C-alpha cells in the first residue's frame, strides 16, 4: 500500500513554485533597484565631471 504522506511529483513541484514566487518577484525587483541605483550614481559622477570641465573653460 502506498504511503499516504507521499505527494505526486506534479503536486510537489506546484507547492515549491508557490513558495518561490514571492521571493523571485522580490529578488527581481531588488536587482532592478540595484541596477537603477548604480546608473544614478554613474550619471551623477558624470554630471560632476562635466560641471568641473565647464568651470575650467570659463
Average pLDDT, all residues: 84
Helix count equals 1
Query: What is the N-to-C succession of helices and strands?
Result: H
What level of helicity do the residues show?
over 70%
Quaternary state of the chains = single chain
Structural classification = mainly alpha
Region (Disordered): 14-36
What's the helix and strand layout?
Elements: H1 9-57
Structure commentary:
The chain has a domain of 27 residues. The model has no long low-confidence stretch (mean pLDDT 84). The chain is rod-shaped. The chain is built from one helix and no strands. Helix content is 84%, strand content 0%. It has 58 residues and is mostly helical.
Question: What descriptors fit this protein?
Answer:
mainly alpha
Quick synopsis:
Helix content is 84%, strand content 0%.
Amino acid at each position: 500500500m502506498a504511503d499516504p504522506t507521499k505527494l505526486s511529483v506534479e503536486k510537489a513541484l506546484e507547492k515549491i513554485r508557490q513558495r518561490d514566487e514571492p521571493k523571485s518577484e522580490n529578488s527581481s525587483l531588488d536587482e532592478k533597484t540595484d541596477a537603477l541605483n548604480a546608473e544614478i550614481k554613474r550619471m551623477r559622477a558624470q554630471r560632476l565631471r562635466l560641471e568641473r570641465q565647464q568651470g575650467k573653460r570659463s
